[in-house]
Amino acid sequence: xxxxxxxxxxxxxxxxxxxxxxxxxxxxxxxxxxxxxxxxxxxxxxxxxxxxxxxxxxxxxxxxxxxxxxxxxxxxxxxxxxxxxxxxxxxxxxxxxxxxxxxxxxxxxxxxxxxxxxxxxxxxxxxxxxxxxxxxxxxxxxxxxxxxxxxxxxxxxxxxxxxxxxxxxxxxxxxxxxxxxxxxxxxxxxxxxxxxxxxxxxxxxxxxxxxxxxxxxxxxxxxxxxxxxxxxxxxxxxxxxxxxxxxxxxxxxxxxxxxxxxxxxxxxxxxxxxxxxxxxxxxxxxxxxxxxxxxxxxxxxxx
Length: 303
What we know:
Elements: H1 3-10, E1 19-24, E2 36-41, H2 46-58, E3 63-66, E4 72-74, E5 79-85, E6 92-95, E7 98-102, H3 107-116, E8 119-120, H4 132-138, E9 141-142, E10 145-146, E11 151-157, E12 163-167, H5 179-182, E13 186-193, E14 195-196, H6 199-216, E15 223-226, H7 236-242, E16 249-250, E17 253-255, E18 262-265, H8 271-289, E19 298-300
Parallel strand pairs: 2-5, 3-5, 4-19
Antiparallel strand pairs: 1-2, 6-7, 7-13, 8-14, 9-10, 11-12, 11-13, 15-18, 16-17, 17-18
C-alpha cells in the first residue's frame, strides 16, 4: 500500500486537515534537520489517535511517535509509514496537589503551572525543552531532579490500540530510561503529584536554574540538547572538552564552544553532519580516555 492510498483511507476515518503527505521533518525537529515523513499526522482527539494506531497495526504500517522534536535526530532519508505528533494533546489541569497534563504539553509549561499554583517538585523542569511524553520516556532530569520523583500515573496506548493506566510500580525508571522505552508505549496523559510550597522560593529556584542554563548552554543555535548520556564516573561534555574537540565542525554541525556536550547547527547542517560528528566525538574520547560515549539523543529514520 503506497502513502497516497493510506492517506486517502485515513481521510475517511479522521479529520483530513490533521494529515500531511511527505512532510519535511526538519520543520519539526529542534536541530532543524531530518528527511521526509511519508505521512505526518497531528490527531486532535483520543479517538482519532486510537483509530490511527489500530489502522497502522492491522495494515502492518510502521508507526513512529515524535514528541516536540527536541531530543531526536531524524536521519536525512526520513521516516517511512505514519509519523504522529501529539502536540494537540497539550491540556494542563490542576487538582489540589496534582497536575494532569497531556503528553504533548511542554514540560516547561507544566513547571510554570506548578509555580502559579504554589506547588513544588517540578522546578528542575523549568528549562527542559521537551514534551511531557518525552520527559516520561527519557526520565528527563536536571539540577538533581528527575521525572521519576513526581510521576504517579500515566495513561498510554499499546501499539495494538489498547488504552492502559500505569502506576508507579509499572514505570521501571532508570537513568534516561523507563517502561515507556521498553514497551514502546504511546503516552496520552501524565499525572504528577507535587507538594505545597512558597511561591517566592519556588520562583527563586526556577530563576536560578534558568540563569544557569542560559549561561552554560548554546541556546542561540538549533540543537538536540545534550547529545550523550553521562558515563559512569565522568561527564561527557568534560571528556569532549578535554579531547580538544570544541569548535570542531563537520558540514554545518559544530561541537559547541560554549558547552562541549552539545552539537549545534551553525550553518544549514544535515543529520548526516550530526551523525558523523557524533561518531568522531565517540572515537576520539574512546582513543584518549578509553570511555564509551552512549548517545542520549534518539536517532531514528532511514540511512
